[in-house]
Amino acid sequence: MGKKSKRNRHKIIELKTRDDRLSEVLDVFANFREVGLNKNIEGVGEFFAMCKDYVNDGQGRSGKIKIPGEKRIIHYILPTRKNTLISVNLKYNKNV
Q1: Interval 34-56: pLDDT, tens
Q2: Does residue 56 form part of some domain?
Q3: Is residue 8, in this structure, part of any structural domain at all?
Q4: Residue 26 half-sphere exposure, CB side, CA atoms within 13 Å?
């Protein structure tokens, strides 16, 4: 059992500001361009639009988007908390 003084403390959740979200999303966009994926590709354009909505409204999102023709799936987590970074993975799937 912990101390009683520690039990009653509530941690304050710090949310990301618009500038924090924007800087992280711009890094992700740059990484996509380095790999050769731009917004003209079907699934990538959808992901870029979702990231822009995330920057503007600040609501967290997560999910998967298929990129047909590239045999890849985008796994993404766009969090609201300040301590958690954006997670975006391109996973290979031969059935896409």
Answers
A1: 999 999 999 999 999 999 999 99
A2: yes
A3: no
A4: 6
